[in-house]
User: Fold Switch-associated protein 70 from Sinocyclocheilus rhinocerous.
Amino acid sequence: MGTTPLLKAIWHAFTALDVDKSGKVSKSQLKVLSHNLCTVMKIPHDPVALEEHFRDDDEGPVSNQGYMPYLNRFILDKVQDNFDRIDFNRMCWTLCARKNLNRNHLLISDDDAFKIWCIFNFLSEDRYPLVMVSEEIEYFLRKLTEAMGGSWIEEKFEEYKLQLSSKHQCLNVWELIELVGMGHFSKGMDRQTLSMGINEVFQELILDVLKQGYMMKKGHKRKNWTERWFLLKPNLISYYVSEDLTEKKGDILLDGNCCVESLPDKEGKKCLFYVKCSDKSFEVSASDKKKKQEWIQGIQTCITLLKVGRPAPHHEARQKRRELRQKQQAEQEELELRMRELQTANENKQRELEAMRKKLEEAAANAAEEERRRLQTQSELQDLYRVEMEKEKMVRQQMEEQVAQKSSELEQYLQRVRELENMYHRLEEALEEERQARQDEETVRKLQARLLEEEVSKRAELEQIHLYQQQTISQTQAEKQELERERLVKESALQSAMQQLQQLEDDRWGALEQYEEVMKKLADAANNTKSWKDKVAHHEGLIRLIQPGPKYPQKITNWGPAAFTETELSLREKDWQEKKNRPPTPQ
Assistant:
């Protein structure tokens, strides 16, 4: 069995005996503590062993570190699982509560405070001094709230966590008892409800009671049904006469070979199920189907955990939370280590930059000294060269005359180059104007094509309206008056459509005029381009002439570009006007 929970309780007792908080306790007090521990844990007590262990320290107190080897060797190593842990915890609680528990303004009894103390030892971290981190505080308060039938308020706990920031997000056992006992998270609940909630959480976490409640049990001998109070633990089911647990009637030992199954209703009993063990079976009747299913599921979970050798769910959940915290702490430490490494590297880089700056300053000083020497040498050389320059003066005059002549030739050459560059720029501008004119031509073509499409659409609409009028006139005389009114409406629509058609024709002719204007610009641009090309070719002889496009305007209709000539379009329009004005043939 693990000794960590035992050590936590003993630590509280030892700390309570350390009156001046020096980490040391007198030998006489340790004798009393050791005797009480051996008595409650049913271990033979050897009073001589403590004297032998501390024979060189007869005077003065004994340190915690000095007591630990004795505690491990003569007490904890001899512990068997044959003692009552509640009595053991209550003995340690009595020693420490007398000194540390402040009962003023507490809404809970000493027994409830003792249960919170046990829960704290179960959920606290395995390091000393013992503290409970905020995650375990939230876990405990959440379970307590659920046990009291209340609703967990996450925002309220988050506000409380902000107050814990100054305490490193943790509480000691006496702060936890004060937090629960003052009713900070149980407002609106009476003392009895709070006490019942603490007891329920205590039974689950400390006594490993996974489920409890009244059910009917069938006897093995007389086969009668009797109401019993059942307690489900990870490895057994105990049943009592009542919920005060004063008279125990028996245990159902569970192992991996047990099974639990539902039974049909019989003998006037409903919600039946039985637990089958290796030696006998037990028939039980729950109060309703929901509780029956909860009991079957809880017992099956215990059997499954026993098969795979896993601990109770709350023990496993606590271990997972601790492993997750350890993992997060390791990641945080790794991150801090990386930050320290980056800081060290940054400091090294700063030192390197400082050394480089000093080197640059030294190099600048050396450069200034070198410059002074250079200027001194230059002055000496200037004096030397001045004599030679007088000798070369005649030669230089001759050279200047030659340079002036070459400069005149160079100026002429540069003037010719500038003229060529100017001609090239004008040629590029002419080409750009030609390209823009072609774009305008394309735009006009698209506009003309769209206008022709709209014209054809309107013509088709007018033909439909005319055809509909002819069909309408051929109806019976009884409908003529109504048809006459409709004809007037249609004629109005026809007149409007004719106006729209005329507008489209005007737009089309306007587009043709724009197109002709664009074509004229294009022709001018092409002539201008050709003239510049001739000039460039005259100077360079390497520029290829760009041939202009066609100068005449190209007609575009809905049948495609240049499908009809202007004369053909006029004939087609005249023919269509005659057909439109021709009176309809009477039916």
